[in-house]
Design brief:
9 strands, about 15% strand, alpha/beta, 7-stranded parallel sheet, 10 helices
Length: about 325
């Protein structure tokens, strides 16, 4: 493991060789900041027939809300239940309410405004994060989000997963990369922070395709990225493909190597919020090694150290 005096990466208060979310938040807010996931029970145009049915092949029935709250509960109660537990250990902690589950701009703009403004005013909240799809951003909603961004530290999280349209077709994303760029552009031109999600290990994607996604996302001028591993979850179309032998799960060392390749290609000012994701233990079919999340994260740290490299070392050189 690299020691602080041998780490060449400038943003290394947590001794990582990439710009972590925790480092960024400490620098911006002067202390510990936690994201608290919320669930307001919104649907998805990829499920209700507006654009498609069944959802993405990898998405669980909870629509990426496996770790979010109960949508039947008021968002204030969802927030307080988590905050009260965190407060016991970190009484000085501050929070970012995170609208995580479902597509959180796919609804009535008046209701969304009411919920977002309310959450921004929660006790000790210093920001807001809103997860959605780029094809669910229009001019009116982008303008509304721009108003919100003037009030608080706002990040809109867009699930891209891959820049490759053939992958999107296999995954039943029901939007193209061009459509993603349109929604992203509406946010970007208004100065709204955007975090883009990428998934490694999608069906029929090669290492070169995964690196191309990271390189392209880096060129977009994003605020942050989340790098995820493809989880094969029970009850999904992806699980059926896996059982039929049509796809294979990534091996741990392969994943670690690709993530390090991507980190090297991302600009140094891009926050890397995640380098791997969580799969619900009772729903996960493969890869089971992903349950040992800290082993994966430590493996990434070790590989960057072994290479003598860091975030941005190869940025713009592809």
């Amino acid at each position: 493991m690299a020691q602080r005096d041998t780490n060449p990466f400038p943003a290394s208060s947590d001794n990582k060789r990439y710009l972590t979310y925790s480092h960024y938040l400490r620098q911006r807010f002067g202390g510990k900041v936690f994201k608290i996931p919320l669930n307001i029970g919104l649907g998805c145009p990829n499920r209700d027939g507006s654009k498609g049915t069944g959802g993405c092949i990898f998405c669980s029935a909870k629509a990426s809300g496996d770790f979010a709250g109960d949508p039947r509960e008021d968002i204030g109660r969802q927030f307080d239940e988590v905050r009260s537990q965190l407060h016991k250990k970190w009484p000085e902690g501050r929070y970012i309410p995170y609208f995580q589950a479902g597509t959180n701009t796919y609804g009535d703009i008046g209701l969304l405004r009411e919920l977002f403004w309310r959450a921004a005013g929660f006790e000790n909240a210093v920001g807001l994060a809103i997860a959605t799809r780029a094809d669910c951003i229009d001019v009116q909603k982008a303008d509304m989000l721009a108003e919100l961004a003037e009030r608080t530290y706002l990040t809109v999280e867009l699930g891209l997963q891959s820049i490759h349209d053939r992958t999107a077709l296999i995954c039943n994303r029901c939007h193209t990369y061009s459509e993603f760029l349109h929604g992203f552009g509406l946010l970007k031109e208004r100065g709204i922070n955007v975090c883009v999600h990428m998934i490694n290990g999608l069906p029929r994607e090669t290492r070169e395709m995964m690196l191309a996604t990271a390189e392209e996302v880096g060129r977009l001028g994003v605020h942050a990225v989340k790098i995820h591993l493809l989880h094969i979850l029970r009850g999904t179309a992806l699980a059926e493909m896996y059982m039929r032998g049509e796809i294979a799960a990534m091996e741990q060392e392969e994943y670690i190597g690709i993530v390090c390749d991507q980190i090297e290609r991302l600009p140094q000012d891009v926050i890397i919020e995640r380098v791997t994701g969580d799969g619900a233990r009772d729903e996960l079919i493969a890869p089971l090694w992903s349950l040992k999340k800290f082993c994966v994260m430590n493996g990434i740290d070790r590989e960057l150290y072994r290479r003598g490299t860091y975030q941005g070392a190869l940025a713009g050189k592809g």
